[in-house]
Design a protein that fits this description.
The chain has 14 helices and 13 strands. By secondary structure, it is of the alpha/beta class. Helix 6 links the parallel strand 5 and strand 6.
Length: 335
C-alpha cells in the first residue's frame, strides 16, 4: 500500500462538509418531469435522488432510493423538441416575454412520470451510495475512474442520504489538504501526462449558441470554449448553461444568437458571471497551482495555452482527480 493511498484512506467521507441547504433534497417517483424541473429550479439544485413514492419508514434503502436525476441531462433531452427554427422565437419586443418555460415543454415529455426517463440512460443515474465510514479514496475512485457525477452518502445507521459528493467537492478538499499529497501536486501537467495537445472542441464567437450545445450532445462533453476570430479564448459555454436558457421565459431565443452575445448576457446575470470566467494555464505549471485556480474560480475545467496564448487542450476535474488514484489500486465496492 503506497503512502498516498494510506493518506487517502485516512479521510472519511463522513467528515466532508454537509449540503448547503442543510439536508439533501429529494424528488418522488410520482412527480412529473415538469414538476421535478420546477422543484430543482426553485431550490437551485442541479440534481436530486429519486425516492419511491410508495416507500415507508421501514422500506429498505435499496428499494426506497431508485435513482438520481440530473437537471442538465433532462433539459438537454427536452431541447431535442426545439430542433426546428420555428420552435424558438428569433426576437421579442423589449419587455415582452416569449412563451417558452418549463411548463411549455412538449406535453408528452413534461407530463410523463419522472421514472419514465429510466428508459434513457443519458438522463438517469443509478443510485450507487457509499456509507459515511467510506474513505476519500473510495469517493475518488467512483468520481474519477468510474466517472460518476455524484456519489450519495448514506448514514450507516439510518440509511438516509446525508450528503452528496461531487467532483467539485473532492477538488476543494484535496486543495485544502494538498500539503499531504506533495508527491502528486508538486508535479507539472507535463509530468502527469496532461500537457500534450489534444483535440479541443470549440466554437467561434460569431457562431450560434445552438452550435455549442450540439457539440456538447454529440461528444458527451460538459462544455466548449468560445474563441475569438483570432483563436484567442473569450469564454466558455457549459451544459449547465442549457438550464439557464431552457428554464427562462426570456432567454430561450438566445439559442439563435451569437456566442459573444450570450457571454455578454451571462456577465450581467447574478450568480453566473464567475462560472463564465475561462481559466487558463501552462503545461509547465505545478498541479498545486492548477487546483487552486480551479477552486478559487469554481471552475470545472482549465484550458492549456501555448506561448501565443492560443488554447490547445482542456483539462477537467476528472482528469486531475484520476491522478490521485493509480489503476492497480482503483477498486471500490459500493453498497
Amino acid at each position: 500500500m503506497t503512502e498516498l493511498l494510506e493518506r487517502l484512506q485516512e479521510i472519511k467521507v463522513g467528515t466532508f462538509p454537509g449540503p448547503t441547504a442543510g439536508s439533501v433534497k429529494v424528488v418522488t417517483s410520482d412527480m412529473t418531469v415538469a414538476e421535478v424541473l420546477s422543484y430543482l429550479q426553485e431550490n437551485k439544485f442541479l440534481s436530486a435522488p429519486v425516492v419511491d413514492a410508495s416507500a415507508t419508514d421501514d422500506t429498505n434503502w435499496k428499494k426506497k432510493y431508485i435513482g438520481i436525476v440530473d437537471v442538465v441531462s433532462l433539459v438537454v433531452y427536452a431541447m431535442k423538441a426545439l430542433n426546428t427554427p420555428s420552435s424558438i422565437p428569433e426576437d421579442v419586443e423589449e419587455g415582452e416575454e416569449d412563451s417558452f418555460n418549463i411548463s411549455a415543454l412538449p406535453t408528452e415529455f413534461a407530463n410523463q412520470p419522472i421514472t419514465d426517463v429510466k428508459e434513457h440512460p443519458e438522463m438517469w443515474n443509478e443510485f450507487l451510495p457509499i456509507e459515511t465510514d467510506a474513505t476519500l479514496f473510495d469517493a475518488l475512485v467512483l468520481l474519477s475512474n468510474y466517472r460518476m457525477k455524484r456519489v450519495p452518502i448514506l448514514d450507516e445507521n439510518t440509511h438516509e442520504v446525508v450528503n452528496i459528493v461531487t467532483q467539485s467537492t473532492l477538488m476543494k478538499m484535496l486543495n485544502q489538504e494538498k500539503e499531504l499529497f506533495g508527491d502528486v501536486v508538486s508535479q507539472t501537467l507535463n509530468d502527469l501526462g496532461l500537457g500534450e495537445p489534444k483535440e479541443l472542441y470549440s466554437i467561434r464567437c460569431d457562431q450560434a449558441i445552438r452550435d455549442a450545445f450540439d457539440l456538447i450532445k454529440k461528444h458527451t462533453i460538459s462544455g466548449v470554449p468560445v474563441l475569438g476570430v483570432d483563436g484567442m479564448l473569450l469564454g466558455s459555454i457549459s451544459a449547465r448553461d442549457i438550464f439557464y436558457i431552457a428554464t427562462s421565459p426570456t432567454k430561450i431565443r438566445l439559442l439563435h444568437k451569437r456566442a459573444s452575445r450570450f457571454l455578454d448576457a451571462l456577465s450581467t446575470t447574478h450568480g453566473w458571471d464567475d462560472s463564465r470566467r475561462s481559466i487558463v494555464c501552462k503545461a509547465s505549471e505545478p498541479l498545486s497551482e492548477i487546483m487552486t485556480k480551479l477552486v478559487q474560480n469554481k471552475a470545472h475545467r482549465i484550458y492549456l495555452t501555448d506561448d501565443s496564448g492560443l488554447p490547445y487542450r482542456v483539462v477537467s476535474l476528472v482528469d486531475i482527480l484520476a491522478k490521485f488514484v493509480s489503476q492497480p489500486e482503483a477498486q471500490c465496492i459500493v453498497m
